[in-house]
Amino acid sequence: MPSKKVIVVSGKRKTALARAIVKPGIGRIRINKIPIEIVEPEIAREKMMEPLFQAGEEVWKQVDIDIKTSGGGYMGQAEAARMAVANGLLKWTKSSHLRTVYAEYDRTMIVGDSRRKETKKFGGPGARARDQKSYR
Question: In which order are the strands placed within the sheet that holds 7-13?
Fold first, then answer.
């Protein structure tokens, strides 16, 4: 019984997490079981499709990608899914040319942004803000 090639990659952005499963196919890409062509809002859809446009149709038309996202807002999930798709295509093709194309277009597609929310401390309403004092 021949083994099928399946790659599992993940992407993170702020508190959003996306897990992509890349397997041989005909170019079907689904996000939370919804085809990428009908995902709303449109700006999030375009953000998720950026790695596909950069790679070219001959690369992503030979794979099916299933993405599951959770946490964060819709844009955070879109950027996490974008990173998962880009890394999945990179692992699938093992192409150094594709890596340079992604890096030149936008480095956060393959590396990610490590910034997180600063934790709230005591003595104030937020991370840095403090309660005001009055001496009168």
Answer: 7-13, 16-24, 63-70, 29-31, 34-35
pLDDT tens for the chain, residues 1 to 136: 556 789 999 999 999 999 999 999 998 999 999 999 999 899 999 999 999 999 888 888 999 999 999 999 999 999 999 999 999 999 999 989 999 999 999 898 998 888 888 999 998 999 999 988 888 7
Determine how β-strand 63-70 pairs with β-strand 29-31: parallel
Give the predicted TM-score (pTM) of the model: 0.85
Domain boundaries, position 51: 7-109
What's the CA gap between 47 and 105, in Å, rounded?
13
CA nearest neighbour of 13 among 85, 65, 64: 85
Assess if residue 23 is contained within a domain.
Answer: yes
19: nearest Cα among 87, 74, 92: 87
Residue 81 to residue 79: CA distance in whole angstroms: 5
Contact 81, 21 (CB under 8 A): no
Report the CATH number that the domain containing residue 59 is assigned in CATH: 3.30.230.10
